[in-house]
Amino acid sequence: DGSSVVQIATLSTTTAGAAAATVYANDGGNFMTNTYTGTYTIEAATQRGQVTLTGDGAPPIAYFTNTAEEDDIIAFLVGTDEFGSGGFVTTQSGSSAPNFDTGSLNDNYAEGTAEDLSGLNGSETGVWNFNGTGGYSNTLDLVQSGGTSTTPFMFTGNYTMNADGSGAGTYTSTGGTTVAFVTSGSIIFSTEESSVQPQLHVFIAEEEAEKAAAKPVKTTIKHEK
């Protein structure tokens, strides 16, 4: 029907090959949260891997990197579903279980949207300040489908954080629009919960952005129906 699908998730693995994930998905305006358990495999010669989760009928294929310490990217993904999905996996925490709280987001972040494959969303970029106490402010520039640019918008809102790095945010100045997000503290991925044309938003903390400035740009795509 032309609607976009965006998924973000927290994923935990063990050295014994076990995997668990909580997936937050907006499928054309239908927002869902699902928790899965399963296994993963990695081929040593090619670094090709696959995560198989019970109840998820389309396990993605992953190719793992050797540069996680440089840019936090662990693997690039391609889906085995009918939509031709793609994405990547980044580091969240080390060997211990994550233990995030509201204060974990206390920085300025550069933000941009992933490529608009449907041609219906346009694109967005801006800077966000998370104050560490549950509030944020931002300045955004938007380009609508068809090339219409907008003057900068300034919004404020609130956010909550769970220990596993998942959370929710609200645009209080736009009538209470809500978003879901997952984070490592230095990187945030988010998507709208109610939009029929959701987008993937990528945030990078200022310190991480400075380190990445001298590195090649890597793109992320979302899939659409």
Structural write-up:
This protein is mainly β and 225 residues long. 5% of the residues lie in helices and 52% in strands. The strands form 2 sheets. It has an 8-stranded antiparallel β-sheet with strand order 7-6-5-4-3-2-1-16. A hairpin with a 5-residue loop joins β12 and β13. Residues 216-225 have low confidence and may be disordered.
Q: Please give the count of helices.
A: 2
Strands across the major sheet, in which order?
Answer: 7-6-5-4-3-2-1-16
Average pLDDT level: 85
Protein structure class: mainly beta
* Fraction of residues in helix: under 10%
Topology (elements, then pairings):
Blueprint: E1 4-13, E2 18-27, E3 30-43, E4 48-53, E5 61-64, H1 68-71, E6 73-78, E7 86-90, E8 106-113, E9 123-131, E10 135-143, E11 153-161, E12 166-171, E13 177-183, E14 187-192, E15 201-205, H2 206-212, E16 223-224
Antiparallel strand pairs: 1-2, 1-16, 2-3, 3-4, 4-5, 5-6, 6-7, 8-9, 8-15, 9-10, 10-11, 11-12, 12-13, 13-14, 14-15
